[in-house]
Design the sequence.
């Protein structure tokens, strides 16, 4: 059952239909933003954290008077990380009169929604995915804040090759997301004249990893690159270790770092994860300091993560685009404003767009899960 996820109660249910002649989602006092993401099910921590980070920034903006006098409404609907539900939610949000779409979580859900928002000419900002299908060829309605899976997997394979680990296997989710990551690994391996020694798959929203463990384990890999969500990756790591296989485990950022560390427990120590956002505990970084302050003000908790930081940074970029769209924002003015962002400094994290490139960042660094579910750079 679909339901609105409400925390900005005075805003979420107000001003659904803009006045006559106004741009959809825009009233004299509000701008409506739509989001479909996983707020339930095995990937729910990703959606909840992405939304929490975005809300922290939106609430601060609204408390300061909004954007040109308009406050932001974030209308979020649960899709459970299922493509059909995401597509239905996208239609509902557009028909309900949102100005743009923001903060979707996942490749399969974003891909299912792409033909709908493209046909409706509705901007789609900051999806939590690095898939090439949302980057190439250029879709003028999609603005990616994060680096791509090609960027992440190249960084991972370069690290493995630098450690002379050339027996590399891939564990991936059997859907658009997993295949996008696999393609990135294959590309990075071919660049270095290496071949994947084995692959294993898991179905989306499941933890049935026995066949993958058997297929990958018998190849005795030195490293396994994982392209799946946190529950299935944790299950795979535990099962591999239980079977006495102990390769270097590597993940891309979508896994959900904090959630993976918690799900894997002691088996997670030493597992590496590529990140496309700054380190959320590095207070020497201005955007991190601002994020921590606003997240605590919004939630009352010091529960920092890469995912909620991404939501915060994505919200900040979105707000800048809305500000630059002027007092009478339209979707076309918003797109033009976003395409003029050049080395936009959010406080130690730069974003650049142009009319021919909507990939805002290529920042990637590697982290490792340490003691007590902490993270090391």
Sequence:
């Amino acid at each position: 059952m679909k339901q609105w996820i409400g925390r900005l109660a005075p805003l979420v249910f107000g001003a659904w239909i803009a006045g006559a002649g106004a741009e959809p989602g825009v009233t004299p006092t509000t701008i409506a933003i739509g989001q479909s993401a996983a707020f339930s099910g095995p990937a729910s921590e990703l959606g909840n954290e992405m939304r929490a980070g975005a809300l922290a920034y939106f609430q601060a903006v609204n408390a300061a008077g909004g954007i040109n006098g308009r406050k932001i409404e974030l209308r979020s609907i649960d899709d459970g990380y299922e493509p059909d539900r995401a597509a239905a939610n996208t239609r509902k949000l557009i028909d309900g009169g949102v100005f743009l779409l923001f903060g979707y979580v996942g490749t399969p859900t974003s891909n299912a929604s792409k033909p709908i928002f493209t046909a409706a000419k509705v901007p789609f900002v900051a999806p939590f995915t690095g898939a090439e299908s949302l980057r190439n060829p250029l879709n003028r309605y999609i603005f990616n804040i994060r680096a791509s899976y090609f960027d992440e997997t190249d960084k991972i394979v370069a690290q493995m090759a630098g450690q002379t680990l050339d027996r590399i296997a891939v564990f991936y989710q059997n859907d658009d997301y997993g295949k996008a990551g696999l393609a990135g690994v294959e590309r990075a391996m071919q660049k270095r004249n290496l071949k994947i020694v084995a692959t294993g798959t898991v179905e989306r929203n499941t933890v049935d990893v026995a066949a993958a463990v058997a297929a990958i384990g018998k190849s005795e890999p030195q490293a396994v690159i994982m392209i799946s969500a946190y529950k299935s990756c944790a299950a795979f790591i535990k099962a591999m270790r239980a079977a006495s296989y102990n390769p270097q485990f590597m993940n891309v950022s979508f896994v959900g770092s904090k959630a993976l560390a918690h799900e894997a427990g002691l088996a997670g120590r030493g597992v590496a994860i590529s990140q496309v956002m700054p380190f959320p505990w590095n207070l020497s970084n201005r955007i991190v300091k601002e994020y921590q302050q606003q997240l605590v003000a919004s939630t009352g908790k010091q529960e920092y993560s890469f995912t909620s930081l991404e939501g915060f940074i994505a919200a900040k970029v979105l707000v800048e685009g809305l500000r630059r769209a002027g007092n009478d924002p339209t979707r076309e003015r918003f797109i033009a404003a976003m395409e003029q962002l050049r080395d936009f400094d959010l406080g130690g994290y730069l974003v650049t767009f142009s009319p021919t490139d909507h990939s805002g960042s290529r920042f990637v660094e590697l982290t490792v899960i340490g003691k007590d579910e902490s993270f090391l750079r």
